Amino acid sequence: MKTLIIVAHPDLENSRVNKAWINELKKHPDLYTVHDLYGTYPNWQFDVAREQALIEAHDKVVLQFPVFWFNCPPLLKKWLDDVFVYGWAYGSKSGYKMRGRKLALAVSAGVREYDYSPQGRYQYRLEDILRPFEITANYVGADYQPFFALYGFEDEPGQDYQFNQPALSAVPRII
Ligand SMILES: Cc1cc2nc3c(=O)[nH]c(=O)nc-3n(C[C@H](O)[C@H](O)[C@H](O)COP(=O)(O)O)c2cc1C
Q1: Staple 86 to which of 18, 62, 91, 134, CB 3.0 to 4.6 Å?
Q2: Could you read off the pLDDT of 81-130 as tens digits, one per residue?
Q3: 67 in ligand 1 pocket by Cβ < 6 Å?
Q4: CA-CA distances (angstroms) from residue 29 to 4, 24, 33, 53, 97?
């Protein structure tokens, strides 16, 4: 079964990391379904039944996003609120549709990995910041996987980053 990649980036056109990941993933349509939330829902009104059906057709789900203000972009939070509802994701016998599905995150961060360490600028590890996703996965019975992160891609105009190709192509292998 294919892996569903839920992409939440408010400005994909000007993205380097997430756009590169999508391009990489789209080379393997037999393995991945790439679903761009901001592109599909410019008015932020989800077709919830469609989103749930999409998940039900995949046993592995990756949430892919850039870290914004130590969190996910807001449309992904709304997607969780709207799609992971009572009776589908939890709370009734017919619910728990996430149960047993693998769930992983693929995130890009502007700052260096060292900054996300007890000695670094932010003191907390990215793992700590992403904990709400882990707890949510546990709550709905999903099988939470270690996240994949690419650090150090702060947006500095004029600066041309050399992509670490092995790191970028590692995304398809996270689950
Ligand atoms: C509004 C905003 C908030 C951001 N907040 C964070 C942050 O909290 N932590 C961090 O590491 N990077 C932060 N960044 C940097 C982005 O995560 C980084 O530019 C992005 O992951 C690069 O991926 P992209 O090339 O796909 O856009 C922020 C960027 C923006 C525009």
Answers
A1: 91
A2: 999 999 999 998 888 999 999 999 999 999 989 999 999 999 999 999 99
A3: yes
A4: 11, 10, 7, 18, 24
